[in-house]
Amino acid sequence: MRALLFALMMCLVSFPAQAQYGGGTGEPGDPYLIYTAEHMNAIGANPGDWQKQFRLMADIDLARFDGRQGRPPFNIIGTYYGNGFGSVFDGGGHIISNFSYTSEDRDYIGLFGYVDGAGAEIRNLGLVDPNVAAGKGESVGSLAGGVGSGTIDACCARGGSVTGNRHVGGLLGYGSGDVTHCYSTAVVSGTEYVGGLVGFSPLGVVTHCYSTGAVSGEDWCVGGLLGGSWFGSVAASFWNIQTSGQAESAGGT
Question: What does pTM read for this prediction?
Fold first, then answer.
């Protein structure tokens, strides 16, 4: 009887974590499986899982989590330095459409608010028609608001718009990690450090990337590909002068 009760208790303890996703344990080689918008939204509501691994298994639409007309807002994954997403999210080549988020003063806004960790990686993921409006917020992007360390690989933002105050980019707002094989066509606007792909990349490495979306800003740190970069590097990456409206960039050709 004791053994039976113990087994039952263990099942009850483990059930919620299993139920909120579509399978898996979150461990390397057995990531949590994401099939629905509800699964995706559950990640941001569970900070204890931000060091677990995930894999998207289907195209999903996040329109039901846009925070409008009584609908709940999306739970951003990772919030700030020291509380970011630090593991692997593999999009599996799938698309997340209609990610929307509106805030007047929140910093680190994106599908992932903050990504940080030596093994952190967001890969193989496409966003279609993301719309992020941050008002006075800083570090704003469609995919990620900020990356302290880690890698963004083979990701894109197709269409949509991103607006904010400082460190605003079509894909990534603020990044000190590596951005490879990515692109953005989103319309981007802000005040300071505004870029078609990345707003501000102080130490990051950007390679084999491009952006074509219109870019506008009020300060001088506005660029077709990158708004600003201190000690970062850019290689084999490009922006379109005509479509972006910007003849300059902190990096790229």
Answer: 0.92
What is the rounded CA–CA span in Å between residue 205 and residue 121? 14
What is the rounded CA–CA span in Å between residue 162 and residue 196?
10
Long-range contacts of 29-37 (CB under 8 A, 24+ apart): 31/55, 31/88, 31/90, 33/57, 34/58, 34/60, 35/60, 36/60, 37/61, 37/62, 37/64, 37/65
Give the count of beta carbons closer than 10 Å to the beta carbon of residue 249: 26
What is the biggest distance separating any 2 CA atoms in the chain, rounded to whole angstroms? Answer: 75
Q: Bridge partners of 233? A: 205
Which of 1-10, 101-110, 118-127, 186-195 bottoms out in mean pLDDT, i.e. has the lowest? 1-10
